[in-house]
Please model this.
Amino acid sequence: MTELDRDEFTAGYLIEADEHVRSAIANLLTLEQALRSGSPQHRHIRELFRSLHTLKGLSAMVGVDPIVDIAHEMETILRDAERGSTKLTVEAVEVLLEGIRAIELRTSAFAQKQAIPVAPTHLLEALAALQTSQGSARTLATSAGADKDSLVLDAQLLAKLSPPELEQLMASIAAGKHAWRIDFHPSPERSAAGFTISTVRERLSEIGEIVKVLPLSVPRDANAPGGLVFALLVLSEAPPAQLASASGTDASKLTPIALSRAAVSSDASERGSYESDPDDLVQGNRGVIRVELSRLDDALDKLAALVVTRFKLANCVNELRDRGVDVRELTTIAGEVHRQLRDLRRAITRSRMVSVGELLERVPLIVRAMSRSTGKQVRLSVDAGKAELDKAVAERVFPAIVHLVRNAVDHAIETPEERVRLGKAPEGTITVTCFEHSDAQLELRISDDGRGIDAAAISRRAGREVPTDERGILELITMPGLSTLDVATSTSGRGMGMDIVRRIAVDMLGGDLTLQTTPGRGTTFTMRLPLSISILDSFSFVCGTQAFAVPVAIVDEIIDLTLEHVVVPPAPVARARAGHTRQLAARLLKRRGEVIPLFELASLLQLEAADPARCKAFIVRSHGQPFAFSIDRVLGQQEIVVRPIEDPLVRVRGVAGTTDLGDGRPTLVLDLVGLSSVASAGAMA
Amino acid sequence: MKGGLLHVLFKVADTDYAVRASDVLHMESYNGATKVPGTQSHVTGLMQIRQRVVPIIDLRTRFGLPAEARTIDSRVVVVQWSGRVVGLLVDSAREVMELGGDAFSAPPDVITQRAHGFVAALAQAGTRLVMLIDLGKIIGEEALNGE
Model:
């Protein structure tokens, strides 16, 4: 495999491994609940088995042996459980969870190209102790071939199919459906033609159902330059030619999978449970791809450049019109471009949305761990519906959610004894709900049925007046530094790091945070968040005495004016306006053979200019023309959230919006390109 | 006074003004605003008030009075009007009072002219004369999304 191939393969492995780890965690948690409540567990065990089996196979392919070892032991337990020879217990789930954590640790080591720790002995021993049948690994697959139904399929593949997969194939074929084995050989040429394992998978799943994808090592040859082939086992009623073209191969590479004679009369009762379970037929993540956020950001950057080009176009059209040219048609086209750009922007923005449900996937694990360490009984209910959130918002808000949930378990929910004494159910409930509040806002609620916030006790300790309303309570508990007071006693209800929650929801994301609390009954925190935010990489700088920010993307260069050749033209352009004279482009900068107009940003903004000897300047291009803006000094480079300026009182050319640099005051985000046209026109809007 | 409406009373240059309490979101102390270049002279700038970025109008300048140094009594009365949220910088704001409809009378022409229509009505509050301001005129009736 070439380096590129291997990287692509590794990335594919990590994505798939991650999916199986996630699904295994989710299934283990539901399994645990099912065990406690005595509800059916079969499907979860089967799905777990499938995940671990795949993890094992994939890890063997990339040579991550410690994962193979762990997954193998876990798989054996689940096989036993599925066959009924072992009864799983809550304790066993605990060990299995530990196993998943160990696997996760190793995939992330692999991702970071670090040495992968060997499987911990105590874990392997604990797993082995749960097994009833040592060395049973292959018995089921082979026994299926020997004395019951079987498939006409390569023995190597047959051995890699899990019992449920075998079952699914056999049941479908017996029911008269068509099953195919399609071999896909990855190669640079096929990849260039748009055929990679991901696209093939995607196309095939549109016209059929993929039961299994098995990577196989084969001798390298012209057809398999990577020494790798993927055998896709597909159920489909599409004609072979269509399947072949979907997978970038010809019909001769398709092998029908048939049942061996004996199997046609296979035991129907054994199949029943699968067929009656519609969830089994739904394979997750169909037609979904994962994309690195940076690629989408890149697309947005390119789009931003296109927007600038559009402005140039609009300017040219205006110039032509001013010269008396008939520009009606051009104007129509420019308008179309404008609309299309807006639509494209929306489409890209939409592709950055992630499901809130997925974001909250890890919360049950946190609650579970917390309830163990605190000895409290907590039931978590999560309802995120179909809500979606911009990836950037999701990443930033998640720590706040974790904070609130942790606080709820730690401080709000009472111990089972106390709850019983208070006449409550021994098990506390934490509810996380999320829905779209409007087109632009998402509402996220975290409620508990615990003790409520004792505002009086907190105020006493903080040495503050007791707040009279809930807004006051929120201000009190989000006071920076309150957490240190709260460590001493945890009877107050809340307080740990609440200032951070507020900082994230309000200052970072521009959303808002409210609370309702009833003593003895519980507390609800409500966050309203923007569905997406415009986050800009920016330079912050000082001009006059005021701080400003500009997007990094528009700044060509930052130069030191003291080192530059600044020329004062013999006849400076001065205009008298409204009682004061403004020096516009009074100076010129000679730079690399170009003569660049140099504007005093301070005087454009009607601020006091600093000592010119210490000045820096930004070089910005507008309509291909370079402009220099002198400033006092650069403060730094940082990501900012830009809030648009909405009120007409403060909407002016040259100011794109405001941001909070952390001092609780609005800082103006300047549009230097806009300012340059204002400056060259010689007047502020 | 029965059946009256709550009003927030504030002072600008020793004159009492009133605004309907239902139009007032909250009141804040003033600790400086971020200047926005190119705005009208009565716009002192932007303040971040309770999670919002709010433009501030200096009522002294708006009323054509000489600017004066802010004191610790200076207040920002944050009002909501026609979907917009704007802060009014005033010398002080301490009282909330119920003023009935019958307390108001149309301002004499001389006041209307001198006050550029900023005064909608006059009211007698005890011994004092209070001017009810016309928010629309003061903050400007620009449409929110007008270009």
Summary: The first helix of chain B runs from residue 59 to 62. Residues 6 and 98 of chain B are 4 Å apart (CA to CA). The domain at 5-139 of chain B is CATH 2.40.50.180 (OB fold (Dihydrolipoamide Acetyltransferase, E2P)).
